Amino acid sequence: MNDQRRGTFQLLKDTVYLVAPPAPITLADWADENRVLSPEASAEPGPWRTDRTPYSRGPMEAISDKNVESVVLMWGAQLGKTDIQLNAIGFYTGHDPAPIMVVQPDLVVAKDFSNDRLTPMYRDSPQLSKLVVKDKSRDSRNTIYYKSFPGGRINIAGANSPASLASKPIRVVIGDEVDRFPKSAGKEGDPVSLATARTKTFYNKKLIWVSTPTLKGNSKIEELYEDSTQEKMHLPCPSCEELQTLEWAQIKFKYDEATRSCTEVHHACKYCGALHEEHEWKKDYANRLVWIADKKHATTRGFHLNSLAATINYTWKKAVEEFKAAKRAGREKLKTFFNTVLAMSWEEEGEKLDEDMLMNRREYYAADVPEGVKFLTAAVDTQDNRFEVEVMGWGTGHESWRIEYHVIYGDLKQPRVWADLDEYLQRTWSDIHDRKFRIACTCMDSGGHFTGEVYQFCKARLARRLFAIKGESPGDGTHVPLIAGVSTNNRFKATVIRLGVDEGKSKVWSALKQPLVDEDGNKLEGYCHFPLSTPQRNRGFERQYFEGLTAETLQTRYKEGIPYQVWVKVRPRNEPLDLAVYNRAAIEILRPNLDAELPPLPDPAQPRPPAPQRAKRRGTESSI
Fold first, then answer.
1. What values do phi and psi take at 98, rounded to 5?
2. Are 229 and 293 in contact (CB under 8 A)?
3. Is 375 strand, coil or helix?
4. In a domain, 539, yes or no
5. Which domain CATH number covers 543?
6. How far apart are alpha carbons 449 and 609 in whole angstroms?
7. What does DSSP say about strands 261-268 and 275-276: parallel, antiparallel, or unpaired?
8. Where are the alpha helices (DSSP H) in 149-272?
9. Which of 211, 238, 256 is the endpoint of a domain?
10. What is the mean pLDDT of residues 534-546?
11. Lowest-confidence region among 40-49, 66-75, 248-257
12. Could you give the C-alpha distances from 360 to 140, 273, 393, 394, in angstroms and in order?
């Protein structure tokens, strides 16, 4: 065969490859034949085997079913959600080439996904490595966010970036952790709707939505799941063979509080009541499980699965230990357990905190710093005519003690009030054993009319961990973490920490609702203590304080039919709530070992060393 005929033959062969329909094969079978787990992305690198996670077969077969348009996975952690997505990407790269878009919560996560998960899969799976150019210098079209292959391409997008979701024809859309998506991509609207719109020109489009749920009534994955077949995995009871789901309510366990370990765990049958261990329920797992739908749907299959089904690196004993730890730590950790382990949305209880209930919890402190405190933080709210300062103590498990609420009045245009604030933040506080405590970290509000002065004040005291903070609250339900970032992009080059105040308020609210002990009398973590004032000392925690601490409620709002939750003022003064958020941020910035023991007390029989002499102050400070 001459060169011309050989070239013509190869061109014809390539053309047939691109236009010919793919051979009938399911996604699960394709993955078993072609997918290789990379060493940097898997604890067990090597060929993929669907039977290692047998519950993944049903969803993967649904993804490759030409009659199914959308697949929804409302799944817990440790179940291999990311691997199912990677298998789908590989299938639509190597077997049924198509333009693909993977949408991550933001561009930072998208970059990590591309570098840490997608690129290793393309590199280590032989079929795929031949199709995707590995060296960017050989093909400038292949970047972190974009890769091409014969018959298709893949775009890695961030749900917070309208440009990355811009109008381009896409046949396969994969949305990862959709409950972490912002409510709107800039001003363009719901990222799920925007990504879906990219597929309208394809009759054989495929939409894959994956996430753990979050708040009930505000969970996108729950909304998508409810508009689906609502399938749940069932297993037969080892005793009576009745099919049922694995449910947390049926888990029966023994727990050793001393060692904080689960010593025994069983799942009770809903029908005969028989108790069986995990290995008995999961014996011959792949052949015994079955997905059962709660309703019919023409185009969308939905799958709900909690982490009790996991087969790799997660056990029922581990789930019990995480549950007990979450109960000790409080509502915020318990909410995370419900979301990530049980794959259940969390329903907030009540609309409002009761100020009288909190005020009645006040207790007598025998010293400035009560027993249990290991670190002090402070928060400063900046007003035009005063500073409001709250000092808090922190102990094991984020148990907290309010120490003092102090107001420093003065003209903030004058140096005297700033000097008074500086002096207050340098005070030494003592416990009943005469241990000395200093404030380890301070967060100071930089909003209002004195931003520049706050920046100067904090920059000069950075060595004392005194940080200017800037609160961020999008107001549309978009998730911003409490510690959202750090910047020095200001004319003073001061360190400014950005705070997600909505998450901070949620953490404060959860802590305020935390009881001291559980129903069995075991002490819980995260309880908040408040001090009583005495005739000799007013600590500042009177009714006005508690009214300010409870001055906001969490309410559900709707924008273009999409629910979101927002904090709303019900009273005009909310400085105590703001300061509680700043103090929570301070301890998270500091990140001390709250489990560490305090230094031992000195032996009273031994003479104390002389105290060091402090230099006398000279004059009055004349600058901030």
1. -160, 155
2. yes
3. strand
4. yes
5. 3.30.420
6. 47
7. antiparallel
8. 191-197, 220-226
9. 211
10. 91
11. 40-49
12. 67, 45, 20, 21
CA distances from 621 to 384, 385, 416 (A): 20, 19, 7
Name the token pair of 77. 């952690």
224, part of any domain: no
The Cα-based distances of 148 to 130, 207, 314 in angstroms read 12, 20, 36
Contacts of residues 613-621 at CB distance under 8 Å and 24 or more positions apart, as own/partner, are 620/415, 620/416, 620/419, 621/415, 621/418, 621/419, 621/422
Helix runs in 200-301, H state only = 220-226, 278-281, 285-288
Bin 597: left if φ > 0, else alpha if -120 < ψ < 50, else beta: beta
**Single residue among 193, 211, 229 that ends a domain in this structure:** 211
42/39 Cα distance (integer angstroms) = 5
434-486 pLDDT, tens digit per residue, is 999 999 999 999 988 899 999 999 999 999 999 999 998 877 667 788 998 99
pTM of the model: 0.69
Place of tokens 């100067």: 456
Distance of CA 252 to the CA centre of its chain: 28
Whether residue 226 is contained in a domain is answered as no
Please write the tens of the pLDDT for every residue from 144-195. Answer: 899 999 999 999 999 888 888 876 899 999 999 999 988 777 667 788 988 9
State residue 561's pLDDT score. Answer: 53
Average pLDDT over residues 288-312: 95
Question: What range defines the domain where residue 565 resides?
Answer: 355-590
Which CATH number goes with the domain that contains 207? 3.40.50.300
